[in-house]
Amino acid sequence: MGVRVQTDPFNAGAELKTFSSVQTNAGAVVTFTGIVRDLPDNPLAFMEIEHYPGMTEKALEKICDTAIERWKLADALVIHRYGKLTAGEDIMMVATASKHRKDAFEAAEFLMDYLKSRAPFWKKEHAKDGADWVAQRSEDEDALNRW
Amino acid sequence: MGVRVQTDPFNAGAELKTFSSVQTNAGAVVTFTGIVRDLPDNPLAFMEIEHYPGMTEKALEKICDTAIERWKLADALVIHRYGKLTAGEDIMMVATASKHRKDAFEAAEFLMDYLKSRAPFWKKEHAKDGADWVAQRSEDEDALNRW
Amino acid sequence: MINVLYFAWVRERIGLPREEIETNAQTVRELIAELSAREERYAAAFEDLESLRVAVDQELVDFDASLSGVREVAFFPPMTGG
Amino acid sequence: MINVLYFAWVRERIGLPREEIETNAQTVRELIAELSAREERYAAAFEDLESLRVAVDQELVDFDASLSGVREVAFFPPMTGG
Q1: Domain tally for chain B?
Q2: Which of A14, A85, A120, D34 has a Cα-to-Cα distance from B83 of 20 to 30 A?
Q3: ipTM, two decimals
Q4: Taking CA atoms, what residue in B is nearest to A15?
């Protein structure tokens, strides 16, 4: 199980390769990668991600432990960046490994739903017209209800 | 959109990197990688995958087209190997790119469910005690009902 | 003349991957009956239709599908991709 | 003494990322009332509790959580990770 919170870029492809190669008895690996999107009408200068050092790591480890136990995962990984990012950069990724694809998919979705609304990260979009904190989407809060 | 049916190994990590890097407006990329599992009580010598050349490519392209249209995906990729594979090797992968994570996840699960039971591949496990064709799991057939 | 293909254990039971067949069968079901009557190995392969799938010109169909104008028929067990 | 942390627009409205506060507040809600009474920038930040979240010793809690024995309280908007 791995949790990494960092400013440095990461290579999602290399992470998948490493994560997969250590799985000896899991036939299914699912990854999610979140990428900074450009703003449709107002080009993004950069995105700034703030987090709560200490609580972030604890929250992510707890979310991973819960997922591993609930879906009997062989392994789980969460990487999340903070600091300044530009459009096209990878923000974060999760990876899950399991015997069966259903568990790997569900656990990855669960991790993402919790990460979105329960891990202490906040995004601010800096564009030509000014800067705005990204508001929580009500769908993201609702998404938690299914777990 | 890409569909590849091949005997050669592929590098899932490198594929994810390439797939992600061409997405300009999709914030969410999901991948599934299927890995040959060893047999718990009877070590696997190798797995042999047979397919139906011609029909396989057509079936995979059709499944991808359906997923792209239904979930308004920015992109989709399917790679599937055939021939002889040993435990730990990657059998196949799918990747989906979308604006929102829900669509990317659902489309990847849809692709996997269809691939499992509607793409003309057959697996035979060769172990010390003999060789057996892998039977379809009833859960795999049932999984199609939700789409 | 129809090109008939066999995959996986259907291929193994029948003992060949493909053959050309001259037939007047109107449907897949009639073709199966014709082949099964021909030799024991065909009868064994086609014994349980529940465990068989069929594609006509590379599209999955059911056993009552017409063979009119068809060039290729393939028989195989349920697929196990992924 | 409680270490009080502010993140995102809560930090911006209050104008600082953290401070040490001497308080007799028994609950988070009482601490909020105390701070809001202190200065306008606090009142502005704590105006709408619906749009605020709070963590006590790095665990999410609700506003009625006790402050007994607590060393760290953090206020922030709904999280937007992922």
Answers
A1: 1
A2: A14
A3: 0.94
A4: B13
